[in-house]
Amino acid sequence: MWCSASGTFPTAGGAPPIREDFVLRSGTDLMLNAIVYQAQGMVAVQAGCSLEQALELLQYEADATDIPLERLAARVLDRAVRFEPT
Questions:
Q1: What range does the domain containing 81 cover?
Q2: Which residues make beta-bridge pairs with 12?
Q3: Distance of CA 44 to CAs 3, 14, 26, 48, 58, Å?
């Protein structure tokens, strides 16, 4: 796998480089990350906070309720879980 010192992979045709931390091992990983990132955005809007704070809220709630982060994120997308403004 090619990787530059900047942590990005070169791409053909002058397209923007792909960040190494976004390259995932399987389609399942990609789908789970997409669910978490979409839920992160929904939580940010619901709670009126930054994306970083929204992810922290999701992680805290997942730990506090002993629910895997991906399952909690799916419940946020299904609107079964909602976060109030902080």
A1: 24-86
A2: none
A3: 32, 33, 27, 5, 10
